[in-house]
Design a protein that fits this description.
Elements: H1 3-24, H2 36-68, H3 73-94, H4 114-138, H5 149-178, H6 181-190, H7 194-208, H8 213-237, H9 242-262
Helix pairs in contact: 1-4, 1-5, 1-6, 1-7, 2-3, 2-5, 2-8, 2-9, 3-8, 4-5, 4-6, 4-7, 4-8, 5-6, 5-9
Length: 263
């Protein structure tokens, strides 16, 4: 594994981590939670970006790379995608966490604080995002395999944009749970640390066995789609303003698609 690949993976995931920090910093500006209508729009945008990134930045490159390796592309893409979804389902089922706006914790029963479980909820979301960005940057020099630094930056920009409202969405409830803006900011920011960690680990794994790259790309896609379907879409349909959530999904999808195609 070349040092450059790890440094590039750190660069890309560092961008997305800082965007989470920026989103969490809004806890110092808002006295109360953001308007529910805007929250639905932001969550929809995040879902749209993740869906588009899964298709344009992960699944399609995974299929193209598997074909270039002389493998049966649909088998590797399908197995990787399903494995990614199963992995997130396993974490979702075992790790105690609480989503913003929800009163019922998920995962194994625990006596952990509400603030800790809110923190873990966003951390779960950030794992597949870190994997996706890390892989894209770590192998951005493999142009012949369908990668480029421009497409990696496109993915980082898209994920970074949706990390801002995500960081905001978790920091504001954390302020109420902890009673401290600073603690809420720190929790919200630290939830993004998992992205560089996941990004570097997956690049190390892919570097030791480059033939697994199609599987890993599809794995990250499956993990992201699980987050969208299991967590984001149900949140968008609860209560009022679900139409704004749908509009957000479409805007996020189109923006990510444009970034991936044009850059």
């Amino acid at each position: 594994m070349e040092t450059n690949s790890l440094l590039l993976a750190l660069l890309g995931t560092g961008i997305t981590f800082l965007s989470t920090v920026f989103g969490a910093s809004f806890v110092f500006l808002f006295k109360n939670d953001i308007n529910p209508a805007f929250q639905k729009l932001f969550l929809g945008f995040a879902a749209g970006v993740m869906i588009a990134a899964s298709v344009w930045s992960l699944l399609i490159p995974a299929i193209e790379m598997a074909e270039a390796q002389g493998k049966v592309a649909w088998i590797r893409a399908s197995m990787g995608f399903l494995s990614g979804g199963f992995f997130l389902w396993l974490l979702d089922s075992l790790l105690p966490h609480l989503h913003p706006g929800s009163k019922t914790p998920e995962g194994l029963p625990t006596g952990w604080r509400r603030s800790t479980m809110l923190f873990l909820a966003l951390t779960l979301h950030n794992i597949p995002e870190g994997m996706a960005v890390g892989l894209s940057f770590g192998f951005s020099g493999a142009v012949e395999q369908g990668f480029s630094l421009a497409s990696a930056f496109a993915l980082a920009i898209g994920i970074g944009l949706q990390n801002v409202p995500e960081g905001m969405a978790v920091a504001l409830p954390l302020k109420q749970a902890t009673g401290s803006r600073f603690k809420a900011f720190m929790y919200g920011s630290l939830s993004g640390v998992v992205e560089p960690i996941a990004g570097v680990l997956v690049v190390l794994l892919a570097g030791s066995a480059f033939g697994f790259m199609p599987w890993l790309l599809a794995f990250a896609a499956g993990a992201m789609i699980y987050v969208v379907v299991e967590e984001l879409i149900p949140s968008l349909q609860e209560g009022k303003h679900s139409n704004l959530g749908t509009i957000g999904v479409m805007i996020g999808f189109v923006l990510m698609m444009i970034l991936d195609i044009t850059l």
